[in-house]
Specification:
Elements (H helix, E strand, L loop, with lengths): L5 H20 L3 H17 L1 H17 L4 H7 L3 H16 L7 E6 L5 E8 L2 E6 L4 H12 L3 E5 L5 H17 L7 E3 L6 H6 L8 E5 L2 H10 L12 E5 L5 H13 L8 E7 H17 L3 E4 L1 H6 L4 E2 L13 E7 L2 H11 L4 E5 L3 H10 L4 E4 L19 E2 L7 E2 L6 E8 L7
Parallel strand pairs: 3-4, 3-6, 4-5, 7-8, 7-12, 8-11, 9-10, 9-11, 12-13
Antiparallel strand pairs: 1-2, 2-16, 14-15
Length: about 425
């Protein structure tokens, strides 16, 4: 397909997607699962091809001087390839939401009114760096009965095209149109501008990437957007926390992986436990080369902690940097999260049931956790099979967006000749 005329190229993709979406919407569960299984098999079979394609992208990224966090997100390993395939098989094993009817009740007129779950239609997905999104997004969109137009970052062009070939092979083997999942072949940024304004062909946009990308799409899109801007995630260690449990959670939430949106960026510690736990945690962090920035109370305990600025409390570092604040208790912790957080993921470590319940109720984030790591805020970990992204919006989908978040509901009415009086 000619990609030199961006507008006509994108319009053509949109028309193909709209046509394919009608085929996919009426496909039965067995056909969709056949396609998903075939995709997983192709990805497993082509592991070396995928890793070779990824190596090209990594070489180019390093030669361009991309930051370490971007290179980390771009990298595929044999384990990562296996996880992609497993994600597709998990999606195949999930219940098909399309056609599900709920809330069917009789009205006084004799009609029955309920809701049926239906596909959204065509979903445009714009993402940076992570090539696994190509498989995750394709699988989720397909199982939810949608067509997808995928626009990966230019830095992952070889990886994305190699994965897309496996996806389209799966569609073909299941008798579905290959145009049900299309990966934009041009790296021209004008393609994004076209995609987010093609309201005749695209029903929803899902951006995954840096804050700049998502802000641009949210501001310029003429289509509904499912998004989150920041992952400023907190862990609050209460003075009634189990000490060893708190140490393990605070370590994992920050250091298991630095460049993800569910990584802890600010650690809040109750003043009643700070003198005991901060020396233990700071030693762990310093041994892992994590830079610590803290308030005066934290720095009075550990002198090597740098002074935190007001901006640090708002910061999503996506790097081995952590802000630490000592708080007087649960109220101040919740106030801090409310002021500085991004409504993504926040956790409390405590053995006090009442405080845990208050935290769950009063922290207004898309995922709120008790006694576990923020790194679990993930569709795969939540049993969604995979996720298309995290939403911090409050309308339609919130938190990790899996199958249900990629569908809508319509009212259905069953009658037997009733007429409105």
């Amino acid at each position: 397909m000619d990609t030199t005329n961006i507008k006509s190229y994108m319009q053509s993709l949109g028309q193909e997607a709209r046509t394919a979406s009608r085929r996919v919407a009426k496909a039965d569960t067995a056909i969709k699962n056949h396609a998903l299984t075939a995709m997983a098999n192709a990805i497993r079979r082509d592991e070396q091809l995928l890793l070779a394609a990824n190596a090209k992208d990594l070489d180019a990224a390093r030669s361009k001087g991309l930051v370490a966090s971007m290179v980390d997100r771009l990298a595929l390993s044999a384990k990562g390839v296996a996880t992609m395939a497993e994600g597709l098989l998990q999606i195949a094993a999930l219940a098909d939401p399309v056609g599900e009817i709920n809330g069917l009740n009789y009205r006084p007129s004799g009609i029955q009114v309920g809701k049926m779950r239906v596909p959204l239609g065509v979903i445009g997905i714009i993402y940076e760096a992570r090539p696994n999104v190509t498989a995750d997004a394709a699988g989720l969109c397909l199982k939810a009965g949608n067509a997808a137009i995928l626009r990966g970052g230019s830095e992952a062009i070889h990886s994305n095209q190699a994965i897309a070939a496996c996806v389209q092979e799966g569609l073909r083997l299941a008798g579905l149109p290959e145009t049900a999942v299309q990966v934009i072949e041009t790296t021209d940024r004008a393609a994004v501008g076209e995609l987010i304004t093609m309201k005749d062909f695209v029903d929803v946009i899902v951006p995954r990437g840096g804050k700049g990308l998502i802000e641009r799409i949210a501001n310029e899109a003429r289509i509904p957007v499912i998004k989150h801007l920041d992952g400023v995630c907190h862990v609050y260690i209460d003075d009634q926390a189990d000490f060893d449990k708190a140490v393990r959670i605070a370590d994992n939430a920050k250091t298991q992986r630095y460049g993800t949106c569910n990584t802890m960026e600010t650690l809040l510690i109750h003043e009643g436990i700070a003198q005991r736990i901060l020396p233990v945690l700071s030693k762990i962090y310093f041994n892992k080369s994590v830079e610590l920035r803290g308030d005066a109370a934290a720095r009075s305990i550990i002198s090597q902690i740098k002074e935190a600025t007001e901006q640090d409390w708002y910061e999503e570092y996506l790097a081995p940097i952590l802000s630490i604040r000592i708080v007087t208790g649960l109220d101040q912790a919740i106030d801090h999260i409310t002021r500085y957080g991004s409504q993504h993921t926040d956790a409390i470590v405590t053995e006090n049931y009442t405080r845990a319940r208050r935290f769950l109720r009063e922290v207004d984030s898309s995922s709120v956790m008790v006694n576990t790591s923020t790194r679990f805020a993930d569709g795969f970990e939540y049993g969604l099979g995979a996720e298309i992204g995290i939403s911090t919006d409050k309308i339609h989908a919130r938190g990790p967006v899996g199958l249900e978040g990629l569908t809508s509901q319509k009212f259905i009415v069953l009658g037997d000749g009733q007429l409105r009086q």
